[in-house]
Design goal:
5-stranded mixed beta sheet; 3'(2'),5-bisphosphonucleoside 3'(2')-phosphohydrolase; CysQ/Inositol_MonoPase; D-Maltodextrin-Binding Protein, domain 2; about 260 residues; alpha/beta; Fructose-1,6-Bisphosphatase, Chain A, domain 1; magnesium; 2 domains
Length: about 260
């Protein structure tokens, strides 16, 4: 992909993330009395409508894989596929928090090409083409981003082995981006996810020079026939060996 084409695609990714995040804020502000489930469902639906309209206008020939739309096998033969999560972190969104995200990633000829993530609204959008490097290291223990509500037991074992601090936060996109921005040093997940949960923030993490992989060290692959992608590791490159070693030990200690 040449520079001009990459810049144009980055603009599309930003436009998708910003538009959906703006609509999500509007939906939440306009419905203060809705309960959590109803607000989650409304937010998902409205963000999907905005994203579908934006991609129809800006990239009408491209295929789409979205959490909130019917899948089509035609995407497997498409050269360009957008991988979309209209609202990552529905619990946080419904609780009025800002640690939710909108994900827009582009896969070109089977390779993850770029991604944009709107973090908690349209004002803060990270785009892979605009990220040169990750934040510098901080003194103190290793900080591992984990779920606010259901930290995997695997991560607790890794944290104990490394003497690490667990930092609770919301959506997967927020947790991955926290390693880019320096709020955390690693994010380890082993509890089940799909491609749309990680594609866009992983594109940003890779652009920032972070280590990204499955728990077993294999590559994270996107636009696969089955979009289930249940585990991942994102960490500062200088921590890779320690973290991957601790993960291997923790997995080996798990009962058959």
């Amino acid at each position: 992909m040449d520079t001009a084409a990459r810049a144009a695609d980055a603009d599309i990714a930003r436009a998708v993330a910003e538009a959906a995040a703006r609509r999500l804020i509007e939906v939440r502000d306009a419905n203060p009395t809705l309960d959590g489930r109803a607000l989650k469902d409304l937010g998902d639906a409205e963000a999907q409508l905005v994203i579908a309209a934006t991609l129809t206008e800006l990239a009408p020939a491209d295929a789409v894989l979205s959490e909130e739309a019917a899948d089509s096998a035609a995407r497997l033969d498409a050269s360009r596929v957008w991988i979309i999560d209209p609202l990552d972190g529905t619990r946080e969104f419904s609780e009025g928090r800002d640690d939710w995200a909108v994900h827009a990633a582009l896969v070109v000829d089977g390779m993850l090409a770029l991604g944009a993530v709107a973090l908690g609204g349209p004002e803060r959008v990270l785009v892979s083409s605009e990220v040169d490097e990750h934040a510098p290291a901080q003194d103190g223990p290793v900080r591992i981003a984990v779920s606010r509500t259901r930290p995997p037991q695997l991560v607790e074992h890794v944290a104990a082995a490394l003497g690490a601090e667990l930092v609770p936060m919301g959506s997967a996109g927020v947790k991955i981006c926290s390693v880019v921005t320096g709020q955390a040093d690693a994010y380890i997940h082993g509890g089940g996810q799909y491609e749309w949960d990680s594609a866009a923030p992983i594109a940003i993490a890779r652009a920032a020079g972070l280590h990204t992989s499955r728990l077993d060290g294999s590559e994270l692959l996107y636009n696969q026939p089955n979009p289930y992608l249940p585990d991942l590791v994102v960490c500062r490159p200088e921590l890779k060996d320690r973290i991957m070693g601790a993960i291997a030990d923790a997995l080996a200690a798990q009962p058959e």
